[in-house]
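Morning. Coffee machine broken again, so started the prediction first thing and wrote up yesterday's gels while waiting. Chain of 149 residues, entered below exactly as on the submission form.
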Amino acid sequence: MTELAANKLHAVLFVCSMNAVRSPIAEGLTRLRYGKRVYVDSAGLAKMERDGFALAVLREAGIEFENDEPQTLDEVDCAAFDLVVALSSEAHTRAADLLRTTSVELLFWPIEDATQVTGSREQRIEAYRRVRDSIDLRIRDEIGCRFRD
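Came back before lunch.
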């Protein structure tokens, strides 16, 4: 059993740059999979309205996220979580600084920024789907192992 699997997980925080795409996708997917087993939240370095494409790919997965309000990392008590997962390099740097005197585990998942993809609507939504699916795979592989008996 890995150290990751040996630690009991009670609360996880996903952080990214704006709390508009990657971190809300991760929050929604984790709630869908493990919501009754773990408290899940998300935050960004800055606050931005939820991205319409992100909400669309969450709806495709059966997740309604429209009523959830974005928040900044400064509005969250990071030390209250067992695990913080940074989804952008900027968020990783800031979270590492905030967590340096705590026992909170920090993971860095360098996830593509789908907002940087250009092209047709279909090309752009495909980028968001790739982000969603990439995050979902990591959730199952790296967080789900904490719930296996």
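Residues 1-6 have pLDDT under 50 and may be disordered. Going to sketch it on the whiteboard this afternoon.
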